[in-house]
Write a structure and sequence with these properties.
InterPro entries: ABC_AA/LPS_Transport, ABC_transporter-like_ATP-bd, ABC_transporter-like_CS, BCA_ABC_TP_C, P-loop_NTPase. The protein is of the alpha/beta class. The protein has ten helices and ten strands. Strand 9 and strand 10 form a beta hairpin. The chain binds adenosine-5'-diphosphate and magnesium ion.
Length: about 300
């Protein structure tokens, strides 16, 4: 594939005590593609997501977004830089409305200062109205308009996953990282999910997808990286990966184990020293284009 990658990651190492979760993992995600990240349970997929989104600090690693180096040490700054994600274990504000869950995502792009919020200035009110409109448009996009005023926790599992996607999209990400979005979905919901991810790609966004459903992954992804025990064991087109002996051995042959004990890493990683093991020559995330550089950001 030609052109420059949107996300370029190399040499990511992450150890949890005695567990070597990631051992030199890297991948290039091309813009406008759906890139699959697959592998058996415990391969390090979620940990990799956590390191690129600032939830867990990598011991080592090189991260570039749109050709600019970044240090994914703070979740909100990663969001402003253009990466959004969903979680293997759904994380919604269960007692808030569906609409408000999406509005929360939208606030990452808020322009007005806290003092304007406090004084409820016209600028603040205009922005709040715009946030509501944008959130409603996103609910329509994922097919949840009818559910807008329900409490998030009352939604079906499949709808909660779609709500998480809407909330992530509210930050206007260049890269949307989905951690097992089809887990727990029935066949009909999976078909709808596939169509939704294709729509997101058609908008020009880039999707990084962790998914166990081989049929979904092979049909949807432009390119696939396979992890096993913290190593990349294959990277290529779906057909190449599917016929790779190491992959068949490590993953496809053991797909029946895939839904055992889903594991999502706790937030505790975010409390680690952000400077630990990070190359001092790294630019901070602040060097990345900010919300103001995003053409579609609200004015
Ligand atoms: N916060 C954590 N603390 C300790 N061990 C962790 C943590 N997060 C992940 N691990 C371990 O790292 C390895 C990779 O896990 P994970 O990234 O969740 O794999 P996958 O998403 O591919 O199933 C596993 O052995 C897991 O137990
Ligand atoms: Mg996982």
């Amino acid at each position: 594939m030609s052109g420059a990658p949107l996300l370029k990651v190399s040499g990511v190492i992450k150890r949890f005590g005695g567990v070597q979760a990631l051992n030199g993992v890297g991948l290039d995600v091309m813009p406008g593609t759906v890139h699959g990240l697959i592998g058996p349970n415990g391969a390090g997929k979620t940990t990799f997501f956590n390191t690129i989104t600032g939830l867990v600090t990598a011991d080592q690693g090189h991260f570039e977004l749109k050709g600019r180096r970044y240090r994914p040490t703070e979740v909100h700054r990663v969001a402003r830089a253009g990466i959004a994600r969903t979680f293997q274990n759904i994380r919604l504000f269960g007692d808030m409305s569906v609409l408000d869950n999406v509005r929360v995502g939208r606030h990452v792009r808020t322009q007005v200062g806290w003092w304007q919020a406090l004084l409820r200035t016209p600028a603040f009110n205009r922005e709040e109205a715009a946030i509501t409109d944008a959130a409603m448009a996103l609910l329509d996009f994922v097919g949840l308009t009818d559910q807008a005023h329900r409490m998030a926790r009352t939604l079906s599992y499949g709808d909660q996953r779609r709500l998480e996607i809407a909330r992530a999209l509210a930050t206007e990400p260049k890269l949307l990282a989905l951690d097992e979005p089809a887990a727990g979905m029935n066949a009909t919901e999976k078909v709808a999910l596939r169509a939704l991810i294709e729509k997101i790609r058609d908008q020009g966004r880039t999707v990084l997808l962790i998914e166990h459903d081989v049929k979904l992954v092979m049909g949807l992804c432009d390119r696939i990286t396979v992890l096993d025990q913290g190593h990349v064991i294959a990277d290529g087109l779906p057909a190449e990966v599917q016929n790779n002996d190491a992959v068949i051995e490590a993953y496809l042959g053991s797909a029946h184990r895939a839904y055992d004990t889903p594991h999502d890493s706790p937030d505790s990683g975010a409390l680690e020293d952000p400077e630990e093991g990070v190359d001092d020559r790294d630019d901070g995330l602040s060097d990345l284009p900010d919300a103001s550089d995003t053409p579609s950001a609200p004015r």
